[in-house]
Design brief:
The complex is a heterodimer of chains A (307) and B (265). Chain A is of the alpha+beta class and 307 residues long. Chain A contains nine helices and eight strands. Chain A is elongated and about 90 Å long. Chain B contains eight helices and 14 strands. Classes of the chains: A alpha+beta (307), B alpha/beta (265). The interface between A and B is large, with 43 and 40 residues.
Chain lengths: 307, 265
């Protein structure tokens, strides 16, 4: 029991937090140089999921990727440290509930812990996306072909591709004349499992305008023709992604914002209160009021010390 | 202070232990090699999973064997390749180095543009067919050829070849291949032919040559200023500093003038 308590105390220590954060910063600094000098090792992170990259590029080039493994380890222990520290602090806060002047002051004190929980959610969201999702590049689709969407029962086809080209009169530079200025692709997503959409759902995609269906997103990476003079077969090159952690990350962002607003409110509220109290204590014409105010400021400071 | 030191030592021990375990197991993963954007990974039953220059995953399956589950039909390539269409003459040169230039059945340069005798002779006898320029490939003629594979550099060929049920491998990358990637790329091509040993011999020979040139030019005082590029009607395209061409110039004792340009070939 004592051993468990000691382990818990170790993992909840704020000193440990400082060391982990310093180690993370140092690791990032070292990693920056490896990342820049070996793009072919790290660029596959754009298309591969985390564990696949670790198993292949990560282990094969361990002399340049070791810092990434260290980073994952540090983030793991930082998460553990944050969870234990937050549980301890929240439990201590709840124990001292009666020392607060009101419920608002009590609730506002949770602000940093809300932000800590949000931080854990953000890390968890990223991990979920990169461990359980998929990011498939180079899905080339031309009209008349039905493609199976990997890791699902969905099928995909290109119904129409509209490319607008620059005319010589509206081209920003002479070289742009005849080149593509805008593209919209109509895709059909067939979902055999869904009776409502057995015949397909039509979606439009364009540059920076993906289509979404049942947690899967379809992004336009490239298209053809890019030039009015191109004679080849029109096609689109799609990136198909599943990002299961995006909702967890969104939750983390919202929670972090709430925590930040709470903290801001708490800080300004207490500072204003202190100023008001100190302000009345400087009124020399009313000795009784100044004594009360001084007492209130003293109590406030003692409460802050306790907490 | 003592408490702080204890934490830092125990954490340092954890990190060092983990690093040691990592390095110990670094060679133990499934056989995986990468050369720039290209990669080869051994998977079940003698099959190989490769990544081409576009980042597409393809599976090389020995003839007579079943393809592993989880891959689409257009990702499967039966090996060893016997007949190929090759867009780039540089890739044909590498196939010659591997001893499989006879597998080339279709090209995208005319006979007059070739210096490789086997290709010139092949085009005279009709064994090697000119399919047209890359922007206007005669896909009907290509279909008649019925190659096992097309080694292309043009992404726009993929949808047509998929419709014709002919596997396509993109042999170029968006970022310029550095010298090491250019040298080791032959191993990627070799995996389609089962000529890995020939690839290793080629790499050893080329590495030796490069080393001897670099040694000879190591002490040169006067470094010629060099640029490497193509001049077109409206623009000049140069090789970036991260390219194999620029690296060779530096190794040969030259000064590459575009050392501030990085990116695509």
């Amino acid at each position: 029991m004592v051993a468990i308590k000691n382990i818990w105390k170790f993992w909840g220590s704020s000193t440990l937090t400082v060391f982990i954060l310093l180690a993370v910063v140092l690791d990032f600094e070292i990693g920056f140089f490896f990342f820049r000098s070996h793009p072919s090792v790290f660029s596959p992170l754009d298309r591969l999921m985390l564990f696949e990259w670790l198993r292949t590029y990560g282990l094969e080039s361990i002399t340049v990727t070791w810092w990434f493994f260290v980073l994952l380890f540090l983030l793991f222990i930082l998460t553990l440290n944050t969870v234990v520290c937050t549980v301890d602090s929240v439990a201590a806060l709840i124990k001292r509930r009666e020392k607060f002047s009101g419920s608002r002051a009590f609730v506002l004190k949770f602000a940093p812990h809300v932000m800590h929980v949000a931080f854990v959610l953000l890390l968890l969201g990223h991990f979920t996306s990169y461990a359980a999702g998929f990011n498939l590049f180079n899905n080339i689709l031309k009209q008349g072909i039905v493609m199976k969407v990997p890791y699902s029962d969905l099928q995909l086809s290109l119904e129409n591709l509209k490319v607008k080209f620059y005319k010589s009169e509206d081209a920003p530079l002479p070289d742009f004349a005849g080149k593509a200025r805008d593209v919209v692709a109509d895709i059909l997503i067939i979902d055999p499992a869904n009776d409502n959409f057995k015949h397909g759902v039509k979606k439009k995609i364009s540059i920076n305008m993906p289509a979404f269906y049942q947690g899967i997103s379809f992004h336009l990476k490239n298209f053809y023709p890019q030039n009015e003079t191109n004679k080849g077969v029109p096609y689109v090159n799609l990136i198909i992604r599943k990002d299961p952690g995006i909702r967890i990350m969104a939750g983390g962002i919202i929670l972090f914002t709430i925590g930040l607003v709470m903290y801001l409110f708490q800080t300004t509220h207490f500072n204003l209160r202190k100023k008001r109290i100190k302000g009345t204590s400087h009124d020399c014409s009313n000795a009784t009021v100044s004594a009360e105010s001084a007492e209130r400021v003293k109590n406030l400071q003692e409460k802050e010390k306790d907490l | 202070m003592k408490k702080l030191r204890l934490f830092s030592i125990s954490m340092l021990k954890w990190i060092l232990l983990s690093l040691f375990i990592l390095i110990l197991f670094s060679g133990c993963g499934p056989g995986f090699q990468h050369f720039g954007e290209f990669s080869i990974q051994d998977i079940e039953n003698g099959c190989k999973k490769v990544t081409d220059g576009l980042g597409r995953t393809l599976v090389l399956v020995p003839k007579g064997q079943n393809a592993p589950d989880g891959y689409e039909k257009n990702q499967i390539i039966k090996i060893p390749v016997k007949k190929a269409v090759v867009y780039l003459n540089a890739d044909v040169a590498l196939l010659k180095a591997l001893g499989v230039v006879d597998s080339v059945a279709g090209v995208t340069q005319e006979k007059e543009d070739w210096t490789i005798p086997e290709i010139k002779a092949g085009m005279e006898t009709g064994k090697v067919v000119y399919l047209g320029e890359y922007s206007s490939i005669d896909f009907e003629r290509l279909k008649v050829l019925d190659p096992d594979i097309v080694f292309a550099w043009d992404e726009s060929a993929i949808p047509m070849l998929t419709e014709l049920d002919i596997p396509c491998v993109i042999t170029t990358t968006k970022i310029a291949k550095d010298l090491k990637t250019r040298m080791y790329f032959i191993k990627f091509l070799a995996s389609f032919y089962g000529k890995e040993k020939e690839a290793d011999l080629f790499i050893a020979r080329v590495s030796k040559t490069i080393e001897s040139v670099a040694k000879k030019t190591a002490g040169v005082k006067i470094k010629p200023k060099v640029i490497w590029g193509d001049i077109y009607e409206k623009r000049v395209l140069v090789e970036p500093i991260n390219s194999g061409a620029a690296e060779m110039i530096l190794l040969a004792g030259g000064e590459y003038l575009f050392d501030d340009v990085k990116g695509a070939a």
